């Protein structure tokens, strides 16, 4: 029973981490967003590999400034824990509103978050998050993300 309780607790903590990841993006809380990653964590989107908390936070700090508001949803979470490492997968929907005075106009993207995690002294953290983009809808979604994060 203790093993089951620990596994369920770990799975719950990991699900909460995924939700915090999305919440921090939408709140533009770059410290909280970067804090969901291990110090040497990696975030992959398109052909970019952002490594370390500073670089990981710099990416959306720059990429998302073109939008007045965003909403990122994470659903259909699947978590597998094996000791102090874990994998997680979540379907993602990102809504990007360029002008909050016109909320009916937005650029949407759907995909999958593929995550690897490890237990750290700070709790569960992402060691790697890879975004698999599946579709776009609505306004054109700029795909001209900078290859180098700004400082």
UniProtKB/TrEMBL annotation:
Taxonomy, superkingdom: Bacteria
Boundaries of every SnoaL-like domain copy: 6-129
Protein name: Uncharacterized protein (TIGR02246 family)
Organism name: Kribbella orskensis
Biological classification of the source: Bacteria, Bacillati, Actinomycetota, Actinomycetes, Propionibacteriales
């Amino acid at each position: 029973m203790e093993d089951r309780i620990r596994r369920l607790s770990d799975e719950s903590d990991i699900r909460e981490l995924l939700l915090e990841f999305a919440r921090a993006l939408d709140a533009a809380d770059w410290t909280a967003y970067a804090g969901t990653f291990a110090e040497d964590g990696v975030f992959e989107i398109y052909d970019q590999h952002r490594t370390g908390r500073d670089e990981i936070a710099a990416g959306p700090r720059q990429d998302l400034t073109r939008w007045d508001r965003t909403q990122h949803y994470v659903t259909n979470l699947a978590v597998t824990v094996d000791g102090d490492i874990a994998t997680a997968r979540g379907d993602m929907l990102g809504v990007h509103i360029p002008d909050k005075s016109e909320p009916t106009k937005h650029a949407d993207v759907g995909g999958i978050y593929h995550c690897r995690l490890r237990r750290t002294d700070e709790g569960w953290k992402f060691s790697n998050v890879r975004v698999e983009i599946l579709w776009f809808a609505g306004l054109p979604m700029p795909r001209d993300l900078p290859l180098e994060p700004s400082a």
